Amino acid sequence: MSTSVQRLKKLQNKKLWKPEEIIQILDIEYSRPPQQISKSPIFELILTVLSQHTSDHNSGEAMHHLLKVFPTWQSVLNSPVHVLEDAIRPGGLAPTKSKRIHQILKDIKRLQPDFNLGFLADEPLEEARTWLTSLPGVGPKTAACVLLFALGRPALPVDTHVERVSKRLGLVPLQMNAEKAHILLEKSVKPKDVYAYHMDLIQHGRRTCNARKPKCNQCVLIKKCPRNGVPITFLS
Ligand code: SF4
Fold this sequence. Notes:
Elements: H1 3-12, H2 19-30, H3 41-50, H4 56-69, H5 73-78, H6 81-87, H7 94-111, H8 125-133, H9 140-150, H10 160-168, H11 178-188, H12 194-207
Residues 165, 168-169, 208-209, 214-216, 219, 221-222, 225, 227, 230 line the site of iron/sulfur cluster.
């Protein structure tokens, strides 16, 4: 057995971090900002759609333009889709996102004519999630963003960083798909810790546990990290 494989096996036998330990360590490492609940679920929903496959800066720009051109959600529906497409162009994928947003608003208008999604704060969590994911193009991650950031519900958005870091830390199996990983991870965290866990894992994925070149030698979690799926060249 080669030295690298022996080292990998040794690491994989280690005890794993618990979510509360991860939060405690990464809170200190990255100075997590306190949770601020926006209380505007429809704003959060549209912003999350705009943020798909682009940077926070670009989606912020697109949202800014959208709000400048359309004073109300109804006015988006009253306009042809190409006007929306022009408005959100800075966010990228404007042809797809404009059609999706238009369809989402159309469905919301049918179900909640005043576009107020505040009722989702009082629904049982799974019912609120089902309601959101029944909208066109709204998956578990987008629904969780709305529930967590706009309504303060304990739904965990699992994006690419959260998924990658969780798998490397051995918190979910490497081969598990994002949807199942989402369910498993959310269940593993106490409801009061969901926001902290999400924010800390994202920061860790962006700043240390990068997709291509994880900085394991500088990582505060290395002591109990099996480094599952980390390229062999980073396991020394
Ligand atoms: S950087 Fe390395 S040690 Fe740290 S969490 Fe990622 S894989 Fe584990």
